[in-house]
Design a protein that fits this description.
globular, binds coenzyme A
Length: 167
C-alpha cells in the first residue's frame, strides 16, 4: 500500500514521543530539542507525516552553512569564481521511524530537502551532511553525496548536479 505522506515544517499536532528510529539521540532530538532550535532560528525541522494514522514517519533539519572552495574537487569548481567559501545548506539530522524504514521515506526526505534548497531565496551551491557512521554515509552515497577528501563522513551534493539526477 502506498503511503500518504505530507512533508511540512514541524508543528505542534503530532505525537513526537511516538517517533522511534532506532537511534535514541535522534528520537530525543525530535522530542526535546527540535522546536527550540526552530524558535531560536538555528535550525529548521521538516517532518514527513503519515496522514492515515497521524504519525511522524521521518524528519530532517536544515541550517545555513558554507563550504571552503578548497575542499571541493576541481572539476566541480573550475568554472566558478574563486570565492574562498561557497554557500551551502546543512542537513543536520535525518531519521526515519523503524515502522517506515525501507519504504523510500529517507529518499523522499532528501529530495524534499533538495527542493527547498533549490527554491530558497539565498543561493545554495551544495547540500552538506555529517553522516553519523559508515551506514549513514552509505545511505547518503547512494543519493549522490560525495565525501570531502579530508573528512570521509562529511559529504556534499552539488545542488545543480542533484537537480539533474533527481529530475
Ligand atoms: C538511514 C535511514 C534514514 C534510511 O531511511 P529509509 O527510509 O529506510 O531509506 P529508503 O527506503 O529511502 O532507502 C532508499 C535507498 O537507500 C538505500 N539505503 C537505505 N539505508 C541504507 C544504508 N544504511 N546504507 C546503504 N543504503 C541504504 C536503500 O536500500 C534504498 O536503495 P534502492 O534505491 O537501491 O532501493 C533510516 O534507516 C534511519 O533513519 N536510520 C536511523 C537514523 C540514521 O542512521 N540516520 C542517518 C542520518 S545521520
Amino acid at each position: 500500500m502506498s503511503l500518504d505522506l505530507i512533508i511540512e515544517p514541524l508543528g505542534g499536532s503530532y505525537d513526537r514521543k511516538a517517533f522511534s528510529c532506532g537511534v535514541l539521540a535522534l528520537d530525543h532530538y525530535l522530542r526535546e530539542q527540535a522546536s527550540q532550535d526552530v524558535k531560536r532560528r538555528v535550525s529548521n525541522c521538516f517532518v514527513a507525516a503519515d496522514r492515515d494514522v497521524d504519525l511522524i514517519a521521518g524528519y530532517y533539519t536544515l541550517a545555513a552553512s558554507s563550504v571552503p572552495i578548497a575542499s571541493l574537487p576541481q572539476d566541480l569548481t573550475k568554472r566558478l569564481p574563486r570565492y574562498p567559501v561557497l554557500p551551502a545548506i546543512l542537513i543536520g539530522r535525518l531519521a526515519v521511524d523503524t515502522r517506515y524504514q525501507g519504504q523510500r521515506v529517507g529518499s523522499i526526505l532528501i529530495v524534499d530537502a533538495l527542493r527547498r534548497c533549490a527554491q530558497a531565496a539565498p543561493a545554495c551551491f551544495a547540500l552538506i551532511v555529517d553522516a553519523k557512521d559508515d551506514k549513514a554515509a552509505a545511505f547518503y552515497r547512494k543519493h549522490g553525496f560525495t565525501p570531502f577528501h579530508d573528512r570521509p563522513l562529511s559529504m556534499f551534493l552539488s545542488v545543480a548536479t542533484a537537480l539533474k539526477l533527481f529530475d
